Amino acid sequence: MAADEDDALYVLTAVLLTPAQFPSVLGDDYPEACEVLGLEPYAEGYGLVFGQDGDGARWTVATDDVTLVACAIAAWDCGMEYDLSPDDRTVAAALPGWPLALAVAAPDVPPPHDPEPDAEAGDEWIVLTPPATEVWGAAQRRMGADEIAAQWSAWRAQVDGDGVTFAEPGGGQDGEQPESPVQRVLREVAGYLDDPPPPGRIRSSFAAGDARILRADGPGWSMVARTDDIAFLLLDEEPGEVTPVGRGPELPGLLRALDGMAARPAS
């Protein structure tokens, strides 16, 4: 989208920020992602529009017109043109920078760069930036889980058998082996059934057949699973490692229960 006004935003792409769909780099759940952007975690959510101004500066615009952004994304996914121009009355925030790395740029404007703060405004100026790729942390762990969810078949093909079995922990009593990190995380996941987490900690999306792809996140860990198959775990304490978790007797029931309480994209 382009306009003749000096403050026009040249839209490059957009994503949804809802309990069921949000950029995982922003947080483990929907309220946490909203907090990073200074937004109230309204149940209806937002659309995040990424673009450049006439000087080429990066801007992220949050709009509460979720339907408009969803329609634009659907049209673009089908290879169709769609003029995404949020009404000023729907704009909840205009934030400097991009929280995601984009490989595209607007034509006929300077290259993408961070905008300079308005010296006269006197407001705190925090520029959104994508997470670093050369280190391992919560954002990188969640990005890895995103990749597994998007490329499930490729990741599943790398697993011979089922991997770690979801078993009762030893409990660390005298003479017993202490609980390993994977088993500890699985207990925390199961704990969500009794103590539901904030919106967005558990998300369910479409998969082939009658199955669903589940995402669950928590302090220091992410889980990706297919309801009719195994799960994968990623941990902050194990940089770059992906651990497969076999179904065993407990995992199928856990996945069904999680899917029943998960946030789902609007159909």
How would you portray this structure in words?
The protein has six helices and ten strands; from the N terminus they run βαββαβααβαβββββα. The protein is α+β, with helices and mostly antiparallel strands. It folds into two domains: 130 residues, no CATH class; 124 residues, no CATH class. Strands 5-10-9-8-7-6 form a six-stranded mixed beta sheet, with helices on both faces. The chain has a four-stranded antiparallel beta sheet with strand order 1-2-3-4. This is Integral membrane protein.
Biggest sheet details: 6 strands, mixed
From the helix content, strand content and strand pairing, which structural class follows?
A: alpha+beta
DSSP helix fraction = 10-25%
**How much of the residues is beta strand, in percent?**
15-25%
Radius of gyration using CA atoms only: 21 Å
The largest sheet has its strands arranged as 5-10-9-8-7-6
When the domains are counted, the total is 2
Order of helices and strands: EHEEHEHHEHEEEEEH
Question: Roughly what is the average pLDDT, rounded to an integer?
Answer: 88
* End-to-end separation: 27 Å
Helix tally?
6
* Total DSSP E strands: 10
Low-confidence residue ranges: 1-5, 168-175
User: What best-fitting shape do the alpha-carbon axes yield?
Assistant: elongated
Protein name: Integral membrane protein
